[in-house]
């Protein structure tokens, strides 16, 4: 009999996983907030696995996600969502992106009909939300991310040019011009919702479009996979950075400006004395945890505070495992809380730093510096 043991840490479930099993996450209510619990399940494309999954759903509810392990071959998976789009336009954008994926599959010598793509829909009146799952397996989830970034760079470079395939590039951007493909999901042990499941919510939105086994990303019986390196032929790895943050266009080609492996890192830094009061105030403002480190982003000119804080002002609740971090931009006199949670990562919360705390920094920046000319000696 397959174990129904429940784990409240992902690592515990991974450590107990056997060959031929998935690790699944499931939404659960924890002390007035939604968290995650984890369990293993036999391969869902087998009769044994499907029966076990149905048993888990009966016990825990239809709130399951597949954990995408970094060492397993993975089909192409895409998350598309916006709260500022017209449903018909977003749906057309999804279809446009699938057409581009199919063309890439053909370019690799594979027959598209043998590797169908499933468009899954959980949209409502407030949000357009789709998943795409399908195609052949790639080496791992990070190779899928590299493919999505390659297509994204093509879209940005060809958006305002005529193209022989008549791609509707504008359908891939919402009413504010924001790209609707989520590029930030190709990270370590990503959770990806299974079809016919919903998040634990007062207003659940079920993901519909195929059977639950058809929505699996990692096929445990596949002995074939393709590879897709980054556009500069570097081996891809876990990153939540967007393609346009990693590469820039120069002399007709794409040039890397940011290491993918260090995508969430900057240069370790010591905060100037003129900003220390703000750091102290921010640690009190968080209301949970503490600031654990400081880095400086040379490219964007801001300080980044890592924290142990799980109190998220974006979600208006505590996260079970994801921490928040703070971006401090002294040049603009702004501070924002950001979050690693997949539902919060696209947003930020403007922190109301009192104006008087910027006074020392402003005085320092406005100080007149006397430059004395020193006569050179021979």
Produce a short descriptive summary:
The protein contains 7 helices and 17 strands. With 378 residues, the chain is α+β, with helices and mostly antiparallel strands.
Could you please describe the fold and organization of this structure?
- Helices cover 22% and strands 25% of the residues.
- By secondary structure, it is an alpha+beta fold.
- The protein has three domains: 10-61, no CATH class; 74-256, Alpha-Beta Plaits (2-Layer Sandwich); 267-366, no CATH class.
- The strands form five sheets. The protein has a six-stranded antiparallel sheet with strand order 10-11-12-15-16-17, with no helix packed on it. A four-stranded antiparallel sheet has the order 2-1-3-7, with helices on both faces.
- The longest helix has 21 residues, at 87-107.
- The chain is globular, with a radius of gyration of 23 Å.
- On the 0-100 scale, what is the average pLDDT? 89
For the secondary structure, the number of strands is: 17
Portion in helices: 10-25%
Beginning-to-end CA distance, first to last residue: 90 Å
* CATH class division of the largest domain: Alpha Beta
Looking at CATH, which topology of the largest domain would you report?
Alpha-Beta Plaits
Q: Please summarize the sheet with the most strands.
A: 6 strands, antiparallel
DSSP helix count?
Answer: 7
Shape label: globular
Overall tally of structural domains:
3
Succession of helices and strands: HEEHEEHEEHEHEEEHEEEEEEEH
* Beta-strand residue fraction: 25-35%
Query: Any idea what the CATH architecture of the largest domain is?
Result: 2-Layer Sandwich
Query: Which parts are unreliable, with pLDDT below 50 for 5 consecutive residues or more?
Result: 371-378
Biggest sheet strand order reads: 10-11-12-15-16-17
**Structural class by sheet pairing and helices:** alpha+beta
């Amino acid at each position: 009999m397959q174990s129904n043991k429940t784990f409240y840490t992902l690592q515990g479930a991974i450590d107990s996983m056997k060959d031929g099993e998935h690790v699944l996450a499931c939404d659960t209510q924890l002390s007035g907030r939604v968290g995650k619990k984890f369990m293993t399940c036999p391969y869902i494309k087998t009769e044994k696995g499907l029966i076990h999954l149905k048993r888990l759903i009966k016990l825990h509810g239809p709130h399951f996600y597949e954990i995408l392990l970094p060492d397993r071959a993975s089909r192409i998976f895409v998350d598309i969502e916006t709260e500022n789009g017209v449903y018909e336009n977003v749906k057309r954008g999804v279809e446009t992106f699938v057409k581009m994926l199919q063309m890439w599959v053909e370019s690799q010598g594979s027959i598209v009909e043998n590797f169908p793509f499933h468009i899954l829909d959980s949209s409502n009146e407030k949000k357009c939300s789709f998943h795409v799952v399908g195609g052949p397996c790639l080496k791992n989830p990070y190779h899928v991310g590299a493919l999505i970034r390659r297509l994204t760079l093509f879209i940005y470079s060809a958006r305002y040019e005529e193209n022989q395939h008549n791609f509707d590039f504008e359908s891939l951007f919402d009413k504010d011009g924001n790209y609707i493909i989520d590029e930030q999901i190709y990270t370590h042990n990503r959770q990806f919702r299974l079809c016919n499941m919903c998040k634990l919510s007062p207003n659940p939105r079920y993901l519909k479009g195929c059977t639950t086994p058809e929505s699996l990303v990692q096929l445990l019986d596949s002995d074939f996979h393709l590879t897709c390196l980054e556009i500069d032929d570097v081996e891809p790895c876990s990153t939540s950075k967007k393609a346009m943050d990693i590469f820039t266009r120069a002399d007709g080609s794409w040039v890397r400006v940011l290491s993918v492996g260090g995508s969430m890192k900057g240069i370790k830094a010591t905060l100037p004395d003129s900003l220390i009061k703000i750091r102290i105030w921010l640690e009190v403002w968080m209301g949970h945890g503490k600031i654990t480190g400081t880095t400086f982003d040379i490219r964007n000119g801001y300080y980044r505070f890592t924290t142990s804080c799980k109190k998220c002002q974006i979600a208006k609740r505590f996260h079970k495992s994801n921490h928040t971090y703070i971006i401090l931009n002294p040049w603009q006199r702004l501070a924002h809380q950001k979050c690693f949670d997949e539902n919060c990562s696209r947003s930020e919360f403007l922190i109301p730093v009192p104006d008087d705390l910027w006074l020392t920094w402003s005085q320092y920046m406005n100080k007149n510096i006397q430059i004395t000319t020193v006569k050179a000696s021979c």
